[in-house]
Specification:
The structure is a single chain. By secondary structure, the chain is α+β, with helices and mostly antiparallel strands. It folds into 2 domains: 235 residues, Rossmann fold; 115 residues, RNA polymerase II/Efflux pump adaptor protein, barrel-sandwich hybrid domain (OB fold (Dihydrolipoamide Acetyltransferase, E2P), Beta Barrel). The strands form 4 sheets. Strands 11, 12, 13, 14, 15, 16, 17, 18 and 19 form a 9-stranded antiparallel sheet that branches. The chain has a 6-stranded mixed sheet with strand order 6-7-8-3-9-10, sandwiched between helices. Helix 2 crosses helix 3, helix 2 packs parallel to helix 4 and helix 3 packs across helix 4. Bound molecules: adenosine-5'-triphosphate (ATP). Adenosine-5'-triphosphate binds next to strand 2 and helix 1.
Length: 369
Amino acid sequence: MSIRLHNIGKHFGSGRQRTRALEPINLDIQEGELVGLLGPSGSGKTTLLRIIAGLENPDRDGGARILFGDRDVTDVHVRDRRIGFVFQHYALFRHMTVFDNVAFGLTVMPRRNRPTSGEIRARVHRLLEMVQLESLAGRYPAQLSGGQQQRVSLARALALRPDVLLLDEPFGALDAKVRQDLRRWLRHLHDELGFTSLFVTHDQEEALELSDRVAVMSNGRIEQIDTPDDLYRAPGNRFVFEFLGDVNHLEGEVRGGILTCGDARLSVELPDGPEELLLRPHEVRLVEAPSPEARLPATVTAISPVGAEVRVELAADWMAAPWLATVRHADYERLDLRRGQRLYVEPRRWHRFPEGRETRRDAPRASLA
Ligand SMILES: Nc1ncnc2c1ncn2[C@@H]1O[C@H](COP(=O)(O)OP(=O)(O)OP(=O)(O)O)[C@@H](O)[C@H]1O
């Protein structure tokens, strides 16, 4: 079931208390797509999700329309939108077993639509099998871990075979490892059952790992919607670039193809004038000696060798804030990195956003000499 949003704006309050939560938003989600709504706190993610669910009304003056496939659901009650909902805080019925929680929505259906009790039992068992909780069907929510409870919520939301599944920070309250597992679950279930999903998160990694497309929101606007790959490689503006990961800043003055900032110098093919370059931690190399193109001295202030790469924090007078470099373990050993060590940073690539437009360059070619 595709979702089409047309001019969905939202104000809360009235008079002087009136605040805008969403600028009019247009968004098309394809059938079977899994889309992440990503943005900082207060950017409007939850409001947008609640409007799609029918738990909140959009502003009426902008011709707001919500379509599920060909069905206009703008004025359809939440109960009749055929939506599955999963919230951060597992809203399970505490006095019901896992089985009864998952079966609940089916058992309260109007008699004419309700499956037989045999069909309900079969469907619930199949769902519990899918979320691997069959052996816990007789337990009560209090006897489950947070991750297990959230899997029950997922199974319960899917029991009514919704056309659309909406998830609001579904894994927000869980620890890192359980979140990882549940992400795989959700992706797997989504692909197997083929529903259309929209989920809210403020976690960049989660959005990029799980989504077919990510909509990055700020101040009630969608700044950019793209595949994770395109978002990361070709951010549409500075906000998106900075929100999607760690960023190092190099601010200085360009004269005759050389950017100078304190005692740091970098050869650049840019016109004279003030300039700010942005670099991801993996876009810099650490070297023992300066090159003709780059002389950016720095001191190692912290090293974290945990994970696939080593994270190295760097300080220098020319930096407005400490830099972060990620280096391979092999380079970490070769350079024999230690705290207090002095070395040089060599940009391999950088980004700039003049007037909010993104441009990207590979490492400079021209010589400083
Ligand atoms: N019921 C409400 N009444 C008044 N203002 C509201 C209401 N709900 C949300 N807002 C405001 O609307 C804006 C968007 O809020 P929303 O909860 O959608 O953001 P969010 O991106 O989901 O944030 P978070 O990640 O913190 O949940 C915020 O400025 C918020 O204060």
